[in-house]
Amino acid sequence: MVKKTDPVARIAALSEALAYHNYRYHVLASPLISDAEYDGLFRELQVLEAEYPDLARPDSPTQRVGGAVSEKFVKVRHPAPILSLSNAFSGDDLRAWYERIRRLDDRVEHASFVVEPKIDGLTVVLHYAEGWFARGATRGDGEVGEDITPNLRTVRSLPLRIPVPGNVKSGAVPPQAPKRLVVRGEAVIFTKDFETLNASRRAEGLETYVNPRNTASGALRQLDPKLTAARPISLLCYAIVEMDGERIGTQWEVLECLRAWGFPVASHVRRYTDIDAVVGYCAAQTGARELLPYETDGLVIKLDDLRLASDLGVVGKDPRGAIAYKFPAQEVSTVLLDIVANVGRTGVLTPNAVLEPVVVGGVTVRQATLHNFDYIAEKDIRLGDRVLIKRAGEVIPYVIGPIKGARTGRERRYRRPRKCPSCGQKIERAEGEVAYYCVNSACPAQLTRLAEHFAAVLDIVGFGEKLAIQLVGAGLVKDVGDVFRLTKGQLLELPGFAEKKAQNLIEAIAATRARLAAGGHLGRLISALGIRGVGEVMAGDLAEHFGTLDALTQATPADLQLVAGIGPSASQALADWFALPRNQELLAKLRGLGVWPTGERRKASAVADTLAGQTFVITGTLPNWSREQARAFVEAHGGKVTDSVSKKTSYLIVGAAPGSKLARAQSLGVPALDEAGLRRLGAGER
After folding, report:
1. Active-site residue, selected from the candidate residues 118, 326, 390, 661
2. What is the pLDDT of residues 257-303, one digit of tens each?
3. Which of 392, 408, 7 is nearest to 209 (CA)?
């Protein structure tokens, strides 16, 4: 029996268990343990890997949080062309395709067909070597794509090792994965996850995303993998591009093998033996697409016999053995009656279209998003225009643009507001940003949402949306500081409040104040203030870096940029917020009420400061450490890690596939170290 104290065996066991439970949760949607149990195992593994970094495995779930920021995407040539498909728009088109290929090869007459959903996502190409995920790329032009490996590692449904440990179905052992395997799939955001993401952004006063496909595509092409990790991206695989060993004979077997190895595969797949059945299924699915958990714009029909499909060849960039059946778009036109600007919690103004009611997909639509004011100008959308709107699934409908040919001359150009429609404060726009916003923290339109957010972040029991509306409407809360000034007598004068309810709320507010006064909750308070662009993570980083609100309020943009993840735009926005007189009054009120917590600074390292005064830059993939682990090692020994090589750089830490930083370091005479060299240097060896 293996002892739990054996770190090698325990790390291996935890890695395999977490990989299996991750697969059950994100691929099969059938978890066997609770989130709390998973988190407990995850934390145990984090502790062990920090103590024994040499033992961390490439498939460790701790590697999915995102590494260092890339300088650019490296080009990757695909092992075989990643082809597109020709389109069919009707049953007649499908039969015409069938007749074309039947005339080319008699075997088609007796062929079967596999029908799969045409997933509306970003095509990705996944490389596996000896069962381990080695590289991932975008489709690009079909011949050459972009290497997005670090970003794809953050996608929790992507198996880092195949077969997935413990993936046994009906007692059958999954087939051995080939030594080399290249898989094609689609990165998507499921509809429910997209709705949750946008709901969260609306609650924070941020601009919502237009559709899942663009959101997934944009997230996977971020230079910083941490930004990718923050998006709920999933994966669905459907083809083998290349593999070692005996070739799989049918598309149906390909899907079965992919499932057995642990890849997520769409469940809405059918196999038919004649084209008439295919046509009937396509017609039926046109009205049932809303039942799918992701966006789809059609179906893909493939010859099941892969050798036959290969023998039929390619015409242009389209394989003859497959075709896409496109659903009709869910678009309708109606009249744009008005444009109203709504003010979010952080002051962001979002324009919304007021429409002449129209039915789209069985739902009556009266309003639609216009994204932002630049979008209105770019599309030349005018009041009174007949506009085209689109609604897919439960996603908020949006205005695609005007039908200019329908104009009568009575349409009026829209003028964006110069002042906040609620408080009259002049609206501002940060350099390089799209959104306009009201910076008045006491703006009535923001205040209700902000008070609700403030109470939720600080965990004031019994303080929800309805109470926020009631308190702001009664004039008892003019800024969030007033929450701590509420009295039992004031509450008893409000409708719906009796002795016990008022007493419970006053006690909940007092308990929150006591927690904040006890120290260690500065990050929570910063997050609760609802500063634009400052979420829970950034608030925690600010609290850890500055330690007190006094230090934070006096910080310059340059000081703020010393905090990881805060760039010029964010630092200026933060400094501007703290400089506003109304916000200074709010902070003074909080101080006077005793709501002035401190942060938790990083504890002093117990190891020697052997790297004190030295600056390091990391490039490439290290054999045993992620970049975050290497950074933590340097910082624990007193050193500093930066992103750019300069004359002040002490050492460049080089891993596999280094980027342009290596050439830059060589030109400046900066010495290079590998991972082992860094360890020796940290141990005090020269």
Report:
1. 118
2. 999 999 999 988 999 999 999 999 998 887 777 778 888 889 999 99
3. 392
- On whether the CB atoms of residues 390 and 398 are closer than 8 A, the answer is yes
Q: Say if residues 325 and 272 touch (Cβ distance below 8 Å).
A: no
Cβ contacts of 605 within 8 Å, gap of 6 or more: 636, 637, 638
Tokens of 563: 């905090």
Q: How do residues 352-374 score in pLDDT, each as one tens digit?
A: 999 999 877 557 889 998 988 99
Using alpha carbons, select from 415, 385, 416, 410 the residue that is nearest to residue 399: 385
Catalytic-residue membership of 118: yes
Q: Decide: 52 and 7 in contact? Cβ < 8 Å.
A: yes
Domains in the chain and their CATH numbers? 7-65 (1.10.287.610), 77-326 (3.30.470.30), 331-413 (2.40.50.140), 444-592 (1.10.150.20), 615-682 (3.40.50.10190)
Burial of residue 233, with CB atoms counted within 10 A of its CB: 0-12 exposed, 13-18 middle, 19 or more buried = buried
CA distance 585 to 579: 10
Helix segments in 118-205, DSSP class H: 149-152, 191-203
What's the alpha-carbon Rg for the chain, to the nearest Å?
29
**pTM, to two decimals:** 0.49
CA distances from 145 to 32, 81, 148, 240, 341 (A): 38, 11, 9, 17, 40
Q: Which residue has the tokens 């090589």?
A: 645
